[in-house]
Amino acid sequence: MSAPEFSRPIKARALPEAAVDLQANDTECAALAARFGISSIVSLVARVSLDHRGKAVHGEGKLAADIVQTCAISGEDFPVHIEEPIAVRFVPEGAPPETPEIEIELDASELDEIEYSGDSFDLGEAVAQTLGLAIDPYAEGPDADAARKKAGIVTDDAPSGALAEALAAFKKG
């Protein structure tokens, strides 16, 4: 397996006291854009606070990214700004789960658990994965409606037929 495109290893035993600021450079942005299948990543920054909770390290913060992706309808590139909360828990590989293995409802503190081996975890890769999940693979750009109309998928006429009438009645009631 190759190294992550946006690697920022953090020693689990010696966590920074202040929040960690991460910023991807141009090479990392280009590699992440290729990984996620988008046109480009103009900028990617994150700020994450880390603290020990038992054997786990909890990370909470926020990422902001400016990306360029292709419209799912028109095929034209358009800019997108993403702001996404980060909530992860890094646990040593093979550590027993904090809760027994029974079917339960999960809350935010039990999601996004990432195992690590050795004495450090990769905070940059966790940020990259959070960004990857935040990207809408079917995003529509500002010219999507015009492309639909040009292709004859939509018209200026109001929808008609039994389904359109049922939907109109549903919206009124």
Question: Which sequence of strands runs across the widest sheet?
Answer: 2-3-4-5-6
Percent in helix: 10-25%
Weakly predicted, low-confidence segments:
none
Strand percentage: 25-35%
Rg computed from alpha carbons, rounded to a whole number of angstroms: 22 Å
What's the number of structural domains?
A: 1
> What structural category characterises the helix and strand content?
alpha+beta
Mean pLDDT: 87
* Number of helical elements: 4
The description of the largest β-sheet is:
5 strands, mixed
Number of strands: 7
How far is the first residue's CA from the last residue's CA? 56 Å
What oligomeric state do the depicted chains represent? single chain
Give the SSE string: EEHEEEEEHHH
Q: Assign an overall shape.
A: elongated
